[in-house]
Write a structure and sequence with these properties.
33% strand; alpha+beta; single chain; six-stranded antiparallel β-sheet
């Protein structure tokens, strides 16, 4: 049988690596609390990351989104944004949330969807250059959970500490 796409390496030598997004999804799903939340990645670009979680497993006694789930989803969105960008840059590093400021603005009676982007004044290039030269760096991220009718249910400003592995 003729190969449609011949390769210079024999089949056994070919290493199949998942895309950075697939690797991120696998890393997220390895955490039991994430699985319990029903989380999934909706959008993942180099500049923005959006996570979704259904309301049912994240509901509180008042019938709206549980504050802990909102906080977790926004923290995971920021962590995921940085983790994905590092993978795309070919950098192996550990990402930790260092501190956060959370504002609960309105109750959310719908599915949770958190969007994370760099905070104002932050730069991917400065962050990556600092990480490569010093072996560690910090980065600010803004994450929000929107209300279906418009506006913001919850916002989180976080700083993440990142350290090169090895």
């Amino acid at each position: 049988m003729t190969e449609l796409f011949p390769c210079t390496q024999p089949p056994a030598a070919r290493a199949i690596r998942p895309s950075p997004r697939r690797a991120l999804e696998a890393e997220l799903m390895a955490m039991p609390p994430v699985v319990a939340m029903g989380l999934r990645i909706v959008e993942a670009t180099g500049e923005r990351l959006r996570l979704h979680a259904p309301l049912a497993p994240n509901i509180n006694d008042k019938g709206c989104a549980f504050g802990g789930s909102l906080t977790s989803l926004m923290t995971l969105a920021g962590w995921s944004l940085i983790t994905l960008r590092l993978a795309e840059a070919g950098i192996e590093a550990d990402v930790f949330v260092a501190d956060s400021e959370i504002r609960y603005r309105a109750p959310l009676y719908a599915d949770l969807e958190a969007t994370a982007e760099l905070a104002d004044g932050e730069s991917w290039q400065v962050f990556l250059d600092t990480l490569r030269s010093r072996g560690r760096a910090r980065l600010g991220v803004l994450a929000e959970v929107a209300l279906p009718e418009g506006g913001v249910a919850t916002e989180c400003r976080s700083r993440y500490a990142v350290k090169l592995r090895g």
